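Internal tracking record. Fields below are filled automatically when a chain is submitted to the structure queue. Please do not edit lines marked as system-generated. If the sequence contains nonstandard residues, flag them in the REMARKS field before resubmitting.
Queue: standard
Priority: normal
Entity type: single polypeptide chain
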Amino acid sequence: MPRGYGGVAILWKKNLDKLVTTLPIGNEIIQCIELSGNQKLLFISIYLPCKSSDNHLNELYECIDQLHEIMEVYKATHQIIIGGDFNENIFKENNSNRKNYILDFMSDHNLSTTEVGIAYTHTSGISSSAIDYILYQEKFKDYIINIEKPDIISNVSDHLPILLQLNYELPSSNSESQKQVTTNHKVKWNNIDRDKYKILVEEGIALLKVDPMNPNELDEAFQTLNHTITKATLAVAPKTKKRYGRRNYKS
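SYSTEM-GENERATED OUTPUT FOLLOWS
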């Protein structure tokens, strides 16, 4: 599809398969899943039309109107999270029709967000903006722990990821005898072998083609670079440790 008209997807861990239901609503740029916990949770991933089309305003209106319909159906029974590329800076001081239409939608459904700053840099490297957001219902704000831009050095996208930390209780599974807890360690760069990291990255960069001749070669170069950085990071970073909770024994 042309740039600005791509699709979206939602990924989840396989251990959540039994709790996740894909919903037959939305379209290529609005995808929804339902997570069945103690409070039903609706995730909506969106990619609002950019300004490259002469009809971009009407296209955005149609998408927001569809979100209105989804909200009306689910807001009384679900906690709703909307995240994605809005292709509009809603915090910028302007009076654009696009911005106002998005803000009106948020106001109509009591949706809030957190400003995390610049999260997008144009492929030219010349301009950057804040167009990616995660929206949540104001009535569930106490369940929002944090919204931030995580420090991921292996990211090669022109968009920075945005992380939502949510206080959400999943149903317990009686069939599990152990609860596995994974501790994610942040790389302590002051304590690692920087020379080794530099050597590993330089070795990977040496394998890249200097002048990619077509989109496939460019994509391959990005994948190689991403793999190189990830491999180098894993080689010098602390290994992830797994802890297991104690079993509950009946006396």
